[in-house]
Design brief:
It is globular and about 65 Å long. The chain is an alpha/beta fold and 336 residues long. Strands 3-2-1-4-8 form a five-stranded mixed beta sheet, with helices on both faces. The protein has a five-stranded mixed beta sheet with strand order 11-10-9-12-13, sandwiched between helices. Helix content is 36%, strand content 26%. The two termini are 21 Å apart.
């Protein structure tokens, strides 16, 4: 029996993945009935979301109660920080001080964790240590603990989504070079630049799949659900509706690609010697027709769809759904 399963609770859907070696034994998805994650839920909303997860566990005959859970990037503060070479006690003090300067949240109400990504062998070289710092508001952490406790689940670890994305799409595949992963979700897009050894930088954009749907709805005076259908059926096809559909979504597309370029430029300013080899689009928004071509043309980089099921044995009817499960697969995988 697998030791644990991955549980990814997003604002639009709940995803569950269980692995046994390289085999996906369970991959399940259900709509999130409240449109929110496990924080600031009123009792009726929490009960509704708990019922969804319970039904998923029962329907998929999940026997283990041990799970790994993701906290959405929108609820945490994640940053790669640079420090002079120092001891662990000194680093702890330095991180706390730096966090107070850059995180707009009371330091005494945060839970700080970090991992050293790179430490120069020669302390006198002038090179800096690179440290991935994650700060989670205690309120958020407690809400997730209470939620899983109510479900009778034992949390093996809690991690932020960019770590899971990196594990499933880069590390597990031993992908050569440096990649920029763009996870296009419902409400936002998560960016992370990483290779198989470490994360270099990350960014959270407020533009997600819903932004495209809403601008279509506003432009053509449509209900949002109908605008969503237009988006899925026609995407970025410039020939549809005499080009009016593409013209409508162009501002959102421009903003999203602007965010891609912002992340790329930020990375290259710090690591000019290591180019980005590719952009990996994942998440539900990666299916948007024409998006791969637009991003490739406007960045000059290779752009691919990141299917988290590549290299895994999965039911034939699920092979094309890997982009949706990128975070959940990373959660269900053993730590690097």
């Amino acid at each position: 029996m697998p030791a644990f399963f991955g549980l990814d609770i997003g604002s639009s859907s709940v995803k569950l993945v269980q692995l046994s070696g390289k085999t996906v034994t369970v991959s399940a998805i259900a709509a999130n009935p409240v449109g929110k994650v496990g924080v600031d839920l009123v009792p009726v909303e929490q009960a509704s979301l708990i019922e969804v997860v319970k039904n998923m566990l029962a329907a998929n005959k999940i026997k283990t109660r041990r799970c790994v859970v993701a906290i959405p990037e929108s609820l945490v503060f994640t940053r790669v920080m640079l420090f002079p070479v120092m001891s662990s006690p000194e680093l702890a003090t330095a991180i706390r001080f730096e966090a107070e300067q850059v995180i707009p949240y009371p330091i005494d109400k945060l839970e700080l964790s970090w991992v050293v990504l790179y430490k120069p062998k020669n302390a006198l070289s002038g090179e800096k240590m690179r440290v991935l710092v994650v700060a989670v508001p205690s309120k958020t952490s407690n809400a997730y603990v209470n939620f899983t406790d109510t479900l009778g689940l034992e949390v093996v670890r809690v991690e932020n989504e960019i770590v899971s994305l990196t594990r499933s799409l880069i590390t597990a595949r031993k992908l050569p070079g440096v990649s920029l992963v763009a996870d296009l979700g419902f409400a936002n897009t998560k960016f992370v630049i990483a290779d198989t050894t470490q994360i270099y930088t990350n960014y959270l954009s407020s533009l997600g799949g819903m932004a495209f749907s809403r601008i279509i709805a506003d432009t053509f005076k449509l209900p949002v659900n109908q605008a969503e259908e237009y988006k899925r059926n026609y995407g970025l096809d410039k020939k549809q509706f005499e080009g009016k559909l593409f013209a409508a979504v162009a501002p959102v597309l421009s903003g999203l690609i602007g965010d891609v370029k912002k992340v790329l430029n930020s990375y290259l300013a710090s690591y000019p010697e290591r180019k980005v080899d590719r952009i990996i689009l994942t998440g539900g928004g990666a299916y948007l027709r024409g998006l791969v071509v637009e991003v490739a043309e406007q960045t000059g980089l290779e752009v691919v769809i990141g299917n988290a099921f590549d290299g895994l044995k999965v039911a034939e009817n699920m092979t094309g759904f890997g982009p949706i499960y990128a975070v959940a697969v990373g959660l269900a995988s053993e730590e690097d």
